[in-house]
């Protein structure tokens, strides 16, 4: 009987630990980004030494909050970490000022040549479609020469050295920037 009670309490604790705090807004995650590979365990939330938070001034006196995470993850795993650990998403970038701030921040906090941001491109018959994982408007881009890739689906990575964007296979593993 004691074993049954201990097991029931352990399960109850595991279920309640995954629930949102009272009053916290639920966030919808696009289905294409929410799914992990079958059998792949959820990555742990980054520690303070593996991440760096910053507030960046935006348009009209608004501010945006970002975190650079130095753990290398695939695009979908990075998006999952952003949702689960920061209640956010991979960063969408809507202007050169934000792009410059984020590239400087990534350059200072990572030792990698690219970091994930929240863009996805799909190309077919030379027709290109790009979108952000948060479904905000695609009103700014900073593509490197020869990018984006115009065939298949790729994810968008920023080069911290100059802030230019590249099409990269979504299964590549690299640091990332969350917006929350």
Task: Please tell me about this protein's structure.
The protein has one domain (50-179): Mannose-Binding Protein A, subunit A (Mannose-Binding Protein A, Chain A), CATH 3.10.100.10. It contains four helices and eight strands, in the order ααββαβαβββββ. Strands 1-2-8-3 form a four-stranded antiparallel beta sheet, sandwiched between helices. The chain has a four-stranded antiparallel beta sheet with strand order 5-4-6-7, with helices on one face. By secondary structure, the chain is α+β, with helices and mostly antiparallel strands. A hairpin with a 5-residue loop joins β1 and β2.
Give the key terms.
Mannose-Binding Protein A, Chain A, 180 residues, 4-stranded antiparallel β-sheet, alpha+beta, single chain, 26% helix
Number of DSSP E strands: 8
CATH class: Alpha Beta
Radius of gyration: 18 Å
Major β-sheet, in short? Answer: 4 strands, antiparallel
Averaged pLDDT: 82
The residue fraction in helices comes out at: 25-40%
Total helical elements: 4
| CATH structural architecture | Roll
How many structural units, i.e. domains?
A: 1
Q: Residue ranges: pLDDT <50 for 5 or more in a row?
A: 1-36
Strand content: 25-35%
CATH superfamily grouping: Mannose-Binding Protein A, subunit A
How would you write the strand order of the largest sheet? 1-2-8-3
| Series of H and E elements | HHEEHEHEEEEE
For the termini, the CA-CA separation is 45 Å
The CATH topology annotation reads as: Mannose-Binding Protein A, Chain A
């Amino acid at each position: 009987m004691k074993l049954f009670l201990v097991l029931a309490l352990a399960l109850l604790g595991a279920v309640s630990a995954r629930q949102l705090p009272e009053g916290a807004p639920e966030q919808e995650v696009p289905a294409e980004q929410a799914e992990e590979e079958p059998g792949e365990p959820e990555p742990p939330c980054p520690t303070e030494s593996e991440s760096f938070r910053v507030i960046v001034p935006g348009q009209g006196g608004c501010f945006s909050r970002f975190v650079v995470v130095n753990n290398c993850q695939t695009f979908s795993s990075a998006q999952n970490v952003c949702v689960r650990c920061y209640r956010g998403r991979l960063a969408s970038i809507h202007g050169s000022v934000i792009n410059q701030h984020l590239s400087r921040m990534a350059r200072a906090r990572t030792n990698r040549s690219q970091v994930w941001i929240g863009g996805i491109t799909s190309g077919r018959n030379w027709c290109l479609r790009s979108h952000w994982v948060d479904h905000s408007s695609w009103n700014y881009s900073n593509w490197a020469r020869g990018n984006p890739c115009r065939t298949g689906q790729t994810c968008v990575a920023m080069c911290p050295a100059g802030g230019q964007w590249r099409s990269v296979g979504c299964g590549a593993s690299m640091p990332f920037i969350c917006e929350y």
